[in-house]
Amino acid sequence: MTKEIYKYQFGDAVASRDIEETLLLAVLAAECLHGQSRVRLDAAYCFDEDHRACVVDASTDVGRDISRVFTGFAIREFGEDAFQVKRVNPDALRAGSQCPAAGHPQPSTGDD
To answer: What is the pTM of this model?
Structure first.
């Protein structure tokens, strides 16, 4: 099964804290749709404060919903030009970091 992974890169005008809070709000919205246990089992995402980036694994229904909601929230809150989002190949991500938002493998779950 091929993973669908989306990488979000934000511009300097958006505060890192605002990005992270918006991502967590999208996760909360997914919990409302799917339930807390399903999100805990099926969601994989991370936020890299230093690189102003985050990654969402959208290979599950939960991950797709987190990605959709986060994208919608980000457009509404920060504007369409405040960030870029692109699908990335998981094989192209570099190893050796906790969070692939900086270009590293495996998104972490919200429990990290």
So the answer is: 0.83
